Amino acid sequence: MGRARHFQAATTVAASLTARLTVLIVICMVCWPAMAGTTVHKGSVGDWIKPVALPKADPQFDSQIKNGISNLLSDYQIRKRPGGLEVFDRYAYKIVDRTGLERGASINFEFDPATSEVTVNWIDIIRDGVVIQHLSDGEFDVFRRESDAEKGLFDGWLTAYLNINDVRVGDIVDYGKTTVRTPIIGTDLLFHSFAVAWDEPIALIRKRVTWPTVQPLNVRQVRTDIRPHVQSTGETTTYLWQSANPTPVKSQEYLPPDFLTYPSIEISSTSKWQDIVDTVLPYYRLDQELPADFAAKLDAIAAKYDAPEDRMIEAMRLVQDNIRYVSLSMGRGSYIPRSPTTVVASGFGDCKDKALLLASSLRRLGIHADVALTDLDEGLALATILPTIRAFDHVIVKVAIDSQTYWIDATNYLQGGRADNLIPPDYGFALPIVADKAGMEKIERKELYQPTTFVNEVFDFPKRKGEPLKLTVTTTYWGADADSMRYKLVSQSAARIADDYLKYYNRQYPGMKSLGPLVTNDSRDKNLVSVTESYDLSAGDLDADNLSKDFALKSDVGIRYLPEPDLLERSAPIWLGSPIFRRHRCTVRNLKAHFVGPEDNDDVITPYVAFKARWTSTSTEFQVDWFLKTLNDRIPAKSIGPYLKSLKKINDNSAWNYNFAYSDAEAN
Hints:
Blueprint: H1 14-17, E1 30-33, E2 41-42, E3 69-81, E4 84-95, H2 98-104, E5 106-111, E6 116-127, E7 130-133, E8 141-146, E9 153-154, E10 158-163, E11 172-181, E12 191-195, E13 202-212, E14 218-222, E15 229-233, E16 236-244, E17 264-268, H3 273-280, H4 292-304, H5 308-322, E18 324-325, E19 327-328, H6 340-346, E20 348-349, H7 351-364, E21 368-374, E22 394-401, E23 404-408, E24 429-432, E25 441-442, E26 453-460, E27 469-478, H8 480-491, H9 494-508, E28 513-514, E29 519-523, E30 528-537, H10 539-543, E31 551-554, E32 574-575, E33 581-589, E34 604-605, E35 609-617, E36 622-630, E37 634-635, H11 640-652, E38 655-658, H12 664-667
Helix pairs in contact: 5-7
Domain DUF3857: 83-249
Transmembrane segments: 12-35
InterPro entries: DUF3857, Papain-like_cys_pep_sf
């Protein structure tokens, strides 16, 4: 748990529950044998593919080779075909030492059997200039793996694996495959992005796109000046990008979602988001019939509530709380929602299903609502990325009441608040699915004017010798933190939560014992959740190891969640994430002396983070309040040094130790 045991991450429940619109390739945990018709084929390379000779690696980068593999070639070629794309992918590398055999003696890749047919064109080993062909004796095992099955997420992707026979140190492995892709939707759309430098050496990165001349490609360059060689031949135009022996890029952590790790190039066949909307619009009709029983519940809401804001909240809760989350994102399910009738009848749905159901419900209640596409983790990047249907992995709802806009994530569970204090999902930007004038819209954050987590610890020192110390902790959560805590309280047992809390205090004050179960209170409309804990520490444990003479008061305001990156060669900004505003108060009572705070207790105020400590005291009581608030969501690279210095000062001032056994009588 660490020190910040009360801290609740300011993220919505959707971040852990929501399906992807576009299927992600993941490290897999649950496996099934492949289904029929999912074989990896073998066949010759197409005549449209333009080969390139294997390049030579630049020896100046040899010291940066990782895992015993020297990358030689990444060649990716695309052309349009009726109903979709044909993609050729070639990768070649040299095994330079024994560790490279573990990584380089096998081939594995993932593909979607619903949209892709894969043909391996060759698998060659080049040893001392001699080519040894292994395509004929290589057989791929194909597995279906689902890493998030326990969360109700199923994408249907397959993993193909082949162990190559007789691979040795010094060998070059060279293989190529062709994939015919037939997208479920958007068959005439293209989007491809690629890095022109990796975090390890590579001799040549090559990208070649053949596309209809009447549909010129749009290109976005990010921190690179590499431009394509363009050649038109009648009906088609070929674009060729090449990056030879690029300098490896040092990977950096804590990056903003809209900051690409590597210098990159994006390619899109359209410059208009309306083209993306028009592709999915037919599947998000909001005039679909609702089941009679469900419609009756909506009519009951309309009869009970006149204000559209109240109707919105009640419909939101109806969908969030009663339709459980399951994502069957396989084939059509990756992009196309199920009908509201099907979703209600089954009792479950993914983000697409639940968003369509909620928007349709709101329309029935006389409220203007639209479904909107967004991204859970990289929504901020939607403001800059070229238009593509692949930019999204989540679906939410946009609601307009008079001049007010509300954003609702229907996959949230037990979300609190009414219209005036409803917390919008912190996804950055979203694309409403509307018939005309579609464009990316910003999801505005609500300014935090009060702490969203307030930890109030009251230590009652014993009045008489032999009595225990009493500790009462009341933690109040508001807004997004209340939503997170509310979900935690229903998704975990109260005993487990209480045990975790007790462990936290036992690490600070060995021997601490719980006096009873957690006491919780939830005001859902106000979106306030409180949790109260009660403990005691025996007189013997209080005196053991001079605990009372070196008693720690520690702030629990989420300091550990502030990033502390390596400053070495740092060139990118730091991402601070969703806004934080936390407060922690320690009150110590029944003291026998007058205690004060540190004389050099300076506030830490930067353009990015503010930290304050305030203390008051009487002859028998000492109290300290810590406050932490982030003032921006990122720190520019040039300001990271001062930020790290301020972070050190914050950490130094986040815990105070006192000899609470001291008494004024002893001094006199």
